[in-house]
Amino acid sequence: MAVNPKPAVSLRPSSRFLPVLWFLFVVSGCSALIYEIVWLQLLQLVVGSSSVSLGVLLATFMGGMCLGALAVARLVSPRLHPLRVFGAIELGIGILGIAILFGMPYVGRLYATSAGHGLAAILWRAAISASVLLPPTVLMGASLPAVARWLDLTPAGVSWLGFLYAGNIAGAVAGSLLAGFYLLRVHDMAIATFAAAAMNGAAGGVAFGLASRALHRPAAGSLPLPDKAPLGSRVVYLAIAISGLCALGAEVVWTRLLSLLIGGTVYTFSIIMAVLLLGLGAGSGAGSYLSRRLGRPQIALGCCQMLLAGAICFAAYMLAGSLPYWRVDPDLQPWPRFWLDFARCFSVILPAACLWGASFPLALAAAALPGQEAGRLTGRVYAANTTGAIVGAIGFSIFLIPRIGTQDSQRLLMGLSLIAGLIALAPFLDVARIGGLRRRTGMAFGIPGLVSVLVALGVAVLLLASLPAVPWGVVAWGRHLLPTDMPSTRLLYLGEGMNASIAITQRDQSRSFHINGKVEASAEPQDMRLQRMLGHIPALLHPNPRSVLIVGCGAGVTAGTFVVHPSVEKIVICELEPLVPPAVAQYFRKENYDVLRDPRTHIVYDDARHFILTTADKFDIITSDPVHPWVKGSATLYTREYFELCRRHLNPGGLITQWVPLYQSTAETVKSEMATFFDVFPQGTLWSNETTMGQDEDVVMLGYAAAGRIDRQRLQQRLDRPDHSRVAASLREVGFFSAASLLASYTGSGRDLQPWLLGAEINRDRNLRLQYLAGMQPDLQDAQMIYQQLLRYRRFPEEFREPR
Prior knowledge:
Blueprint: H1 18-47, H2 51-75, H3 82-114, H4 119-148, H5 155-186, H6 189-213, H7 231-262, H8 266-291, H9 297-322, H10 334-367, H11 374-425, E1 433-434, E2 437-438, H12 446-465, H13 472-477, E3 490-496, E4 501-507, E5 510-515, E6 518-522, H14 525-541, E7 547-551, H15 557-560, E8 570-575, H16 580-587, E9 601-605, H17 608-614, E10 619-624, H18 640-648, E11 650-661, H19 667-680, E12 685-688, E13 698-704, H20 712-720, H21 725-733, H22 739-743, E14 746-749, H23 754-757, H24 769-776, H25 783-791
Parallel strand pairs: 7-8, 7-10, 8-9, 10-11
Antiparallel strand pairs: 1-2, 3-4, 4-5, 5-6, 11-13, 12-13, 12-14
Helix pairs in contact: 1-2, 1-3, 1-4, 1-5, 1-6, 2-4, 2-11, 3-4, 3-6, 4-11, 5-8, 5-10, 7-8, 7-9, 7-10, 7-11, 8-10, 9-10, 9-11, 9-12, 10-11, 11-12, 18-19, 19-24
């Protein structure tokens, strides 16, 4: 069948409508990022927040966009007005966004009834994620290819496609900041969803209005893009796919490292995302401008990939040699600190992000041939880029970082960028054939160009070999790293896992366990006292504890307290990072009574909330190793719904303990944690980790599955029993010499504290308010002020007092 080689005859859109269409893509991108943040938070509450769960969610989200980009050209008739198709897509996304908000509780219940562990469980998570995310993300991915049909594949038309893509990313920047710093900080997921749906409705309505005024005539006699792309286009598709892989792989690596340097708060992740998108948008705009002025955009695409190797190297040097030594005033107010954090992320991410952003419009221009169907071509380039992004995100987070570390991961990113550049430039270097015709080197680069490429490769190889690693002190202390820390401290262990980076250090005679840039546990007296309180208090107040669940392994000290209690038969430790238990088993064996080798101990590698949601087991005691509430994601372990879930998994007479840090917290943060806990456990009490100096930086909340009473005399008699001699010795090691001294740490009850907690924010699944409160001022040192406020409400129960 003969193909008409004549250019397409179509009515070009009026130029006065294109700026309006650009603005619609800005609005669409803004709503899409709000949805992404909200949906991922909602689904993490159901399928968990482990790397596997996050990988499934991300792959589903981006996979849906990839499918939408490919499907629109095949399933939507070119006779339909592209603006009406775009309007319908936006309205559909808005409707589905609201449906997901109201439907998630039902999805959660469905998931919990059939969830388990192993490969089948992962497939079930994928099925649940797909049922929720695929419908709206397919529509999101279809929007740009649908509108592409309104533009001819001329240089100007391809340039405008790039500008629309840039506008979409600019909107995503706004959505990231709007969701992270306002909608979710001040309101909740419902308000954020309604705001995003309103944007979709407005964009869809305006698009339908434009369609009634801007005529569209389908291209007649255009050359359809063949099912099998020609070799030249396949080179471009491969290069842009590798570019997408590197972009998302680098995002994973840099997010891991920047969250160590800046602090893993929800605001840090919003800033990182915003800077990355800002660079992509700026680069896309620049690439769109250049694409219509360059005779060979494929050469520019190849040069971008070669330059990316240098940009990745620059980022690695900034992360290892500069940012760790920036001194940041801990008393800096939140908003100036956010601007400083933005500047630090900007210096690392922006150069590479601009080059990745420029690659997409250049790839469009390089793959375009006159007369091709614009929608299908745009969909294929978009799908190639997105497919690479999926591989990069999952590959680096789940496989590469745990196996080769962040340093070698960045080396791999540099190497892949060089390969992508060579693939794109190969046709112009006399090393490839296109359509059976051999191009001669002189047609494009000539000898000087070839020499330049070889010199660039040589320099890149030298830089790759000398790429520095981030100092281990960053993994240990993060943003609190001081110049004197590393010389005065001995590193015993360093590891980068799927979910966290950990270090174990020794200073003088004390060892510390560090995770993601903060000290999580140590053998210091103050920390040992707290960790044992979390275990001994519920174990002694329970008449006969047999099964216990510990959320988070830490140094194993909290779990180890149950080893010495004679009635305990089963100790379950739920730990997210697989590197942690073997490391602490080696270096904290004495402090944790070798709990990880105790035959009663079972280790579950999972998000604790997901484990409790999906297990049928019940426990006499549920406790947690310290988890800082300002860390992104930890707020899900402090919500009302989580505490209700724990209560349902307590046996009759069961108890739960929860750590509350007074340091690095505001009074509003502490009030939110306590008000939420005592809302579920109204009979609960508070216990302080007070030292002989009269200072307190930690408290422990104790909750009862049913009303409980503390008998001081019976508690002392229990400690005096021969079978509890190891329990009494364990308590003496941390300063508790009798039942009276243990009960002296009592700080009040939930009922006594009600006047102080009046008006406190309840942390719920729908708002995760705690992570926004706690992350606002994670360096504030108001512990003594908060503790003194708590003491005003302390009333010792009558049964605590000495008998007369």
